[in-house]
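In this section we walk through a basic example: taking a raw amino acid sequence and producing a predicted 3D structure, encoded as discrete structure tokens. The instruction is simple. Fold the sequence below.
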Amino acid sequence: MKQVPVYLFTGFLEAGKTKFIQETLEDPRFNQGERTLLLLCEEGVEEYEPDSFSGKNVFIESIENEEDIQPAALEALFKKHKAERVLVEYNGMWMLDSLYQRMPEAWVVAQEFLFCDTNTFVSYNANMRQLVYDKLRSCELVVFNRCKPDADRMELHKIVRGANRRCDIAYEAPDGKVEYDEIEDPLPFDLNAPVVEIQDEDYALFYSDLSEDFEKYDGKTLRYKGMVAKSPRLASDNFVFGRQLMTCCVNDIQFTGLICRWPDAARLQKGQWITVTARVDLKWHKGYGKRGPVLTVLDLETAAPPAQPVATFY
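The resulting token sequence is shown next.
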């Protein structure tokens, strides 16, 4: 089955999506005659100027409701125009899973960009955190438009990095000049220390970093506080050690943890807070059903709950 590249542009109204897509389709380096289906999922202030596109090969279709995103409907539009690729201007008020879970099987997101108005982004994040996080977590590039010299780039940077540590960040000034983010993101703990001490407030960042790159934790000795969880599927000397983690809002709080090996695991109570010093080994474990980080406990002691029991990125 031949794969269909999908270029996904997300962001809220007046964030600059339409302008960027217009310029992209005017650029002969991107638009060299490929038959392109452009799906519009919202009606913005700006309108497209198809006559300015590089070639008469772009076919615009609108999707008015989130429920209308269905595999058969998308495939029908693709075949109707005998398209070779797809561009999507996505509605910022819709969750991305509506698209990702209902794309035709052959459709593969090649690039995902998020556009933000610098003047409103912090407010959006404070009042619609779930929607902002949804767009941040999988994008490859965040573009902050209308970024004036006095904008607090560190605040913007921290919000982005709380959801996505790998994407690029660009700041576009009102005059069109673009600067890329060069703020370093050192981890708040020393991975080269004999014992890596992870503070209570750094658990979310630690777990996110570990999940993105298991390999760099292999063989490390860690010390941090967490909660005991039990599973009947695990051996008697195994338990799960972790914390409740909120990535964007109360509705998405979930327990995140790692499998631990300790001979006296049966003594531990579900929900008990402990501080563990343990060695990380990457190995296959039936609890994961695949290769993953398994902690071998070197030292364990009871502990009081942290000041903020639910870990967050901010």
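Looking at the output, two observations stand out. The chain has a mean pLDDT of 93. The first helix runs from residue 17 to 26. In the next section we compare this with other chains.
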